[in-house]
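Hey, resending since the last one bounced:
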Amino acid sequence: MNKVFSLLFCILLLSHVALGDFDFNSVVSISKDDDVVRAYASVQLPGGFIATGVSVDGSLVEGDGVNVDTSFFKFSTLGSFPILQWFYYHGSVSAGAGGSIDISTSALSSAYIPTYVIEYVEKNGQEGLQIGEDDIVGHINLAKYTYDVDIETNKQATGFNVYHITATSSNGLFQMNFTLADQPVEVDGNRISAEQTKIDIGIYNYYDDKVNKASSTILCKDLACGSTGPSSNQSSLALLSFYAAGKFDLDLSGNAGITVQNDNGIYAGFNWVSNAKVTKEDGTVSVSANVVTSVNGTDNQVYGSAQISGIFTADASHKFLVQSFEGIRPSAVEWDPTMGGASEKFQNENSGFRIASSFVLVLVGLVAALLL
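The structure tokens again:
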């Protein structure tokens, strides 16, 4: 029995240790439905953050006895591409037959990794970037930037917290904004559970050579260099990225997302919208510029998978994503996907995100050690 309580205490302790301008009035509380209410704690790290949300009302997985239900977000940039990871852990302890102790666990994890901003010229007559068919005339390697991270917390009138976290490259060209909340909310029309984050991705001033400075390499054709700088072509921009999940197969949700489900009916995934806000060179703004998405099984180890293979375990699955933004030589592109986890009922409304990572393995190892 002491081992059981030690298990629960260690998980809770670990969860608390580990864990552009935002209008908090745009956040609207919605019905809890089959979701939970959490108490998130965030920790700012050099070039990243960890946010840990322990359930204070409900659980995504029904279990007898004492339940521990925790959602983790981890964002890191040091020495790598920007990586946003999501982890979910559920454990329950109950009395079994004959005075025995029954322990059950459930885990889910995934990652989203943007790797390159690509400048391309349309050549094959098909909308969006088709690698190998259109001309790539420039790039930014997102692993070569350093990022400043800022965390804002806002207590809503009803008592729960909303967290807005911004990660901006040192030159301001690439930005990721994360919005998460202690309970289910709607943000600018997007429903997110207490296990999901709304992401706003911004690409600013790519075509300004004072901002997007070419790397010192004389001929920067190798993708390993930081930036080619902008070309003088009538070109467009695309974002290359990966979504990865451990152990479970990835399924496409039409052309709007990727989902994965574990054995306990918990969903995770990466969902995107088919339009973006694009500002043209002349300053005019299109709030519904088309976003063309292609989903591929591999990048042939060219556009980042070779460098990030360490986060993929032997049984992990991943998809290579190409998101192309409508517009010639835009001065700004803003796009907002969603990632995280959700119950099956909440998933039918919106979806989320997860990767088999060392952090979940630490928790599983902790359980095993305490039961020995």
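The first helix runs from residue 2 to 17.

Sorry for the duplicate.
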